[in-house]
TrEMBL record:
UniProt key word Membrane: yes
Gene Ontology CC annotations of this record: mitochondrion
Organism name: Biomphalaria pfeifferi (Bloodfluke planorb)
Keywords: Membrane, Transmembrane, Transmembrane helix
Entry annotated with the keyword Transmembrane helix: yes
UniProt-listed InterPro entries: Mitochondrial_18_kDa_protein
Sequence intervals crossing the membrane: 41-58, 79-102
Family the entry assigns: Belongs to the MTFP1 family.
Pfam families from the UniProt entry: MTP18
Official protein name in the record: Mitochondrial fission process protein 1
GO BP of this protein: mitochondrial fission
Source taxon at top rank: Eukaryota
Length: 161
């Protein structure tokens, strides 16, 4: 997202503005099922999320690459910046921060469930439901936080050139 995303109309972004966005949260679904499935299933969910992140970064880089530039060096620089910016943004907003957050939510829920007399299947499914159910509540705050972080750090470095 651009630093002025709230002040100007932003172009539709299929990776951030459509249901495709939820592929970036596949790892959170995997984390939610961590206590019920083999760990390889959880790691596969990270593979799906990482594929989404890479696809978005390549898309952003390609869109810049297609634009006309007077100098080839400028094309390479701007393409690299767009690609790396997207990799960092998506890596933080779609994989690292939500993955950690859901992991901790599920861990805490599981700890609470071990203190109850509920049947084991109910305990396990409660962890899954709480984990998946928390996803809609964490998406926008994390996206905004990552925008603010990047706007106040990295983007200041490469937007002044």
């Amino acid at each position: 997202m651009s630093p002025t995303r709230d002040n100007v109309h932003r172009e539709y972004d299929v990776f951030k503005d459509s249901l495709l966005r939820y592929l970036g949260y596949a790892n959170e679904v995997g984390e939610s099922f961590r206590f019920m499935v083999p760990v390889k299933v959880v790691w596969f969910s990270y593979f799906v999320s990482s594929g989404y992140v890479i696809a978005d970064a390549l898309d952003k880089g390609y869109k810049v690459w297609k634009k006309p530039f007077q100098k080839e060096e400028k094309r390479l620089e701007k393409t690299a910046i767009a690609t790396i910016d997207t990799l960092i943004w998506q890596g933080l907003a779609s994989v690292a921060i939500p993955g950690f957050t859901i992991n901790r939510i599920c861990w805490a829920t599981n700890k609470l469930m071990t203190r109850t007399a509920l049947p084991q299947p109910v305990k396990k499914w409660t962890v899954v439901v709480v984990g998946i159910g928390s996803i809609p509540f964490i998406v926008k705050p994390i996206d905004r936080a990552v925008d603010l972080l990047m706007d106040s750090t990295l983007r200041k470095l490469y937007n002044h050139k």
